[in-house]
Amino acid sequence: VADGSSTSGLTPSAPRAAFALGNLAFRQGKRDLAETRWLSLSDRFPKDPLAGDALYCAGEQRFINSEWARAAELFTRYRREWPAGSFIDSALALGGDSYEKSGNRALAILWWEENLKKFPAGSAAPRVWSHLVSAYRAEGDYAASLRAAESYQKKFPAEARLDGMGDAIVSLRRLAVGE
Predict the structure, then answer these.
(1) Confidence band (pLDDT; 50, 70, 90) for 4?
(2) Whole-model pTM?
(3) What backbone phi and psi angles, to 5 degrees, belong to 103?
(4) For the CA atoms of 56, 62, 65, 67, what is the dihedral angle to 10 degrees?
């Protein structure tokens, strides 16, 4: 009732109620229903901050379920509609992951680069640097991979060490000069 679905009018609590209904469906394992409810909230109340949260949740739950193409589509919508939203850091990182896993490495690289440009010390930054090193290497752009590995090592030495960046840098230096 609070979401306005059973009445002829909306209550002030309608966005919160719609968000809660999406969460409930998600917890019940009803992914399609959760997405429908979250996207309905986003469409019906586009200026409400919960609309952005709902859109992000829709993408995140598709990501969790390894539905890469759909997750990428939803994160793209979030990025377009909520460019300064509270989840943009994570949306850029997970969107990049989604594009990579759905076979679009070039777009993944662009998303990860944007993430690091906007959030150089963000919580996802070490993982994003690691992904960039691998993606550039897979594309055969050894110079870019080397720059990314060196930047990663400089900015996040402990994480880079755990990711084996020291050995990667040695290898990439050889590859960059054609060895």
Answers:
(1) low
(2) 0.89
(3) 95, 10
(4) -140
